[in-house]
Amino acid sequence: MSLFTSPEDARARLAAGDYLADAHIATTVFLADALGKPLLVEGPAGVGKTELAKAVAAATGADLVRLQCYEGLDEGRALYEWNYRKQLLRIQATPEGQDWNATHDDIFSDEFLLARPLLTAIRRTEPTVLLIDETDKTDVEVEGLLLEVLSDFQVTIPELGTVTAARRPFVVLTSNATRELSEALKRRCLYLYLDYPTPERERDIVLAQVPGITDALAEQLVRTVATLRALDLKKSPSIAETLDWARTLLALEADALDEEAIARTLGVVLKHVSDQNRAAKELGLPTAELG
Predict the structure, then answer these.
(1) Interior angle at CA 56, CA 53 and CA 61, nearest 5
(2) Which of 95, 104, 152, 286 is 20 to 30 A away from residue 55, measured at CA?
């Protein structure tokens, strides 16, 4: 069963959950669902890749299953592993003289299986969004595992057999492009590149997600953020940090983003002192007032 009836439906339902998708994003999301293909979303950190997966889940009433990728992630943490401690206890409680084959079949049963995100998503029969976050941080071996799972949406567990998805999850893979993903993995996905939004679109996002902020303050805020992103920074402000800055200004009851307000609150959006100093120089702020 499809989650969306059209690109326009996808756009409207995402907007209802405060995710303002443009026509390109909405169309790609719709096609990923309609074609049953994973969606690979790539772009700089903080542009809303993870939020898109969350928004799809919220818009469709699906549960979100998240696999957070990191260096050293292995099959046991991504797919499944056996509860060895519980198995050992069961073996110790086995009546003396019981046939080993019977014991083996007992301890390698579903009762002792620890399903990790990939297997959990495949086994679910309810609408599910599987988020494989920061895929580029995994080792090549895990990427090969993803390739196998996402090709047929099935997992073979030697002791139990093959588990095939009764209902394919909507899969979103995100990547910050810190390394190039394999062409084989990309071929199995629809591709969407997200960049920082235009100031106009980011203003709309701020107005939608920060109740109480004025149009004028939102306009000042996103223009300042755009200026910061144009600098050579270690870490450019994310959309989430723009929203945090907006909420900070409201908490301080600031009605304008003047030099004093920027100097007092720059740490909300810039988390490296070198970035703050560079921004202060560009914006003409006294560095002694930062923080």
Answers:
(1) 125
(2) 152
